[in-house]
Amino acid sequence: MTRTSRKAIFVCIFFFLLIFINSSISITALLIKNSEINHPSLAAEVPGERQWINNPSFESQEYWFKEYEGDNTDIDGKISGNQTNFKIIGERWTYSNISGTPNATHWTPGKESVISILPDIYEINSFGCNATHEYWESSGINIYGVQGNQSRNNPIIHWNRIVNMPYDMRDYSITSAELTAIFNASADINLETPYESIEGEPNNGYAAEYDHARFYVLLSDLNKVETYEAAHNQTKELGSGYWPRLGRGGRASASKVNDTYMKTVDKDELIFYLNRVLSHNYQDFRVTLGIDIYNEDNYASAEIDTWYYLLIKSCNLTFDYEKKINRFSSISWKQNCEKISDLSEYPVIVQNATLNFHYKIDQLWNTSLSPNSEIRILINDNKHTETVKLSTATTSFQEAKVGGFDVSNLITDDVNLSLQVYLADDFVLDQNITISIDDVSLDISYIIIEPDEPIEKGPDWSWLVYTLTAGIIGIITVFSLYQIHFKYPPLVRKIRKLKKGVKKGKIKKSILVNKREDIIKHNLNKSKNILVLESTQHDQVEKIEKISINKEEEL
Length: 555
Description:
By secondary structure, the chain is an alpha+beta fold. It has three domains: about 5-40 and about 455-490; about 45-90 and about 330-450, Jelly Rolls; about 105-325, no CATH class. The chain is about 25% helix and about 35% strand. The chain contains five helices and 26 strands. Strands 1, 3, 4, 18, 22, 23 and 26 form a seven-stranded antiparallel beta sheet that branches. Strands 5, 7, 8, 10, 13, 16 and 25 form a seven-stranded antiparallel beta sheet that branches. α1 (about 5-35) packs antiparallel against α3 (about 460-485). The radius of gyration is 58 Å and the shape is elongated.
């Protein structure tokens, strides 16, 4: 048989075995399927309905827990009085620490800048913040004991007070503000004012700004990055009356300004200034009371300008600030209920789920503050499409929706409920507002698919599949080994192995083979031995037969 014929036979047998395996598996699968068909499963639909919420009337906090999102300083929650409460925290505070006559405890004197000069006398006395000064161009000593100097024509004095707010003002909004400041003053009539003519004076007197004093209130941050003048008054008539450029008219004839209010900015501008100076560290700012004395050099020769007193008598700063409510802040009361699958070991199908609750508010909601704030329903962290606007709440409990909310599409095996008050807008709130919820219900109707009678299992044919598969694999293995190896004599197998080794370049041990002459001689000797043995055996047989014949004759 040629090598090609052997390969053809091997391929035919291999394909036959594959067909056999496929047929065996198909037959086994058909037997299993027929077994299943012959033993159908019978099932019954068992309907049911249940209220799913634990502790729906909030008799305690059991089963419920709260969760915040956004700024939790804006909202809080508490269960009490058989209801759950969502509190929106509103506050209104008034700052009024700066009031009345300034005193040395709170106000500290200082220069306007590094290069500015101070008046001859500055102090805080029982009447307020006072400055006294005399401008004298000569080198003599003025009435206040200070040496005259032409450079002392523009002294400025500041009294500073640091305001420390009790709260971080990022959480509050200033809603109203008011500032008042009163001053009075007295000066000699030797001042030059717009109400007198100095042109006829010797040495050709002249004037541009005239002598004046400016009273003001400044607001600034601690580092004076931003400074705003919130109130001021600049004198015009003070010092009016004729007196020569040298000398003094005296206190008896002095010009005076009685108690006068400084001119302040309007409320909105004052609020803007306060917000700006608080924007640097959100809690501290500076208030400054200032007096700026300007002595114009009206003559080519020396002159005297005398200020008897310049007094800031009182300062009152008050402003109201209310709590900021940040949008997207929320508080939720949550409950993780039982799973649907906890009802039965058999499949459960939810037919319908309806949620409802009662709600109220302790004061009617101001829609202008936040028209979009609402109560939201979330199940398994998925928001229901319908919400309840806070603007619809009344001061008495009412049903959230007549007939309830259909939440069937939100129910999975998990049932995790969240009732959330969601603040959708930025607004300010001056007092607490509380939303309350009670009588929460989640009614779920369902069907349990359970067997109507015990199900009998058919015979298990898997053993047949395993046995056939193992048997076929064994047959293929034996057949393959025979075809490849064992059908050849040992010597041929060794020769085949040697050939493979030679082809692959491997070194193998040599096989000793007898010479042709030795083989022929060995075979001839073997044949001779056989003939001798056969001849010997024949002689022995004849001898035995003769002995037997002799014995018979003797008998």
